[in-house]
Amino acid sequence: MNTLQRPVLVLNRNWQPVHVATVARALVLLWKEAARVVDAADYQTFTWDDWSQLRPRDDERCMNGVNVRFRVPEVITLNDFDRLPRRTVAFSRRNIYKRDHFQCQYCGVTPGSEELTIDHVIPRAHGGVSSWTNCVLACVDCNSRKADRTPQQARMNLKRVPVSPEWRPAYGDHRVRLESWSKFVSEAYWNVPLKS
Fold this sequence. Notes:
Elements: E1 7-11, E2 17-22, H1 23-31, E3 35-38, E4 45-46, H2 48-53, E5 62-64, E6 69-71, E7 75-78, H3 93-99, E8 116-120, E9 135-139, H4 140-146, H5 151-154
Parallel strand pairs: 1-7
Antiparallel strand pairs: 1-2, 3-4, 3-7, 5-6, 8-9
């Protein structure tokens, strides 16, 4: 992944997660003095001037400037924004996988994404629509067994009632989340595996 496109967790000024941005966007916010970088190791914050003076350690990701190397920020906090934005999660195949934890909602298996399909609880042939409350993940076997019937007609029970999820950083545009984010977001908040 291009360093400038790597994800950065954005916290409001109360240190609550509100967004996932790119490194490029985070650096612009830092430069404009709208945000500060948070060092996840000791919670120290840095302005642009402070951050640009820090030299990266050998094990840290960095960017090369004309005459200097910069550490890549992983968490920033906004200086003035203190609200929690009300966000809706885009209805998409990827987000259904995240909501359902890559698990068949009928039998509970977790076979891998290539063995999962999206099932309409009320089939489209019966007037069902593609929506958060009518679509679930189903393994190929369960989807074939259910066919063009409702779960009641097929005598299959759903593990969880499908609902529209609340936004959390895992639903951001980035598929990567960083270990340093775990200090700011509880493990229960995530639906995707950790990367380093």
